[in-house]
Write a structure and sequence with these properties.
By secondary structure, the chain is α/β, with parallel strands linked by helices. It is built from 8 helices and 7 strands, in the order βαβαβαβαβαβαααβ.
Length: about 260
Amino acid sequence: MKMIFDFEGKTALITGGESGIGASIAKELASLGCSIIITYFTDTNLAETVLESLNQNGQKNLAIKCDVRDEATVNELFNQAKNVFGKIDFLINSAGIRSFDKPLADLCFADFKNTIETNLFGVFLCCKQFINQYDKDFKGGRIINITSVHQEVVSAGKTDYCASKFGVKGFSKALALEVAEKNITVNCIAPGMILTPMNEKAINNADYRMEQETRIPLQYAGLPEDVAHMAVFLCSPNANYITGTSQIIDGGLSLNRSKGSK
């Protein structure tokens, strides 16, 4: 079968597209002809830098400030996007925050709420707006939700993060059933240790990174491009028959979580 990676005439909306995995996905899709809308939360300079690199490919692209926790802001995001592009073909929910890394006894409700609202509620709000653009005359689309290996395996001190990522996985599987008749596919990508700003310690501390990599069967941390390549595949016609799945990209890390069990 011939692999098809031509996205001329397609438009992707990528939340959290100003850095890390989101930015990498944006650049990969843009290099294949896709027009891009990236959202950012606070860092205008990062967003403008990414937008400048996207514009080198000659497509029309946008960077829009958005708080994915806020329904009115998300609604306005989609209104702006549709006014410019008419429709959005691909939604990639990449915006998210890391765990506060505190045991539950020390985790305040405001922090727990912030993780859930950003990582789970944001996915809900964006998916709802994306689906509502589809009617009987417009079918077909892709939703990709970036989760984590923590949708499958847990760590102490990460109740907030694990709850949010388990939630996105379950949400995505249920949504895949709901929208299948519209020919919309819904899949998760679950990264492991990827060298992004969310893993700043691993980038800046070589000893810490090497210690963490010993737990990965492939013995090295992944790059944002590793996740972007999967996102491109899931957006392509080659993935037409794939929905309701989670694609784990972790170098085998999650397989090692069972070591020591009987």
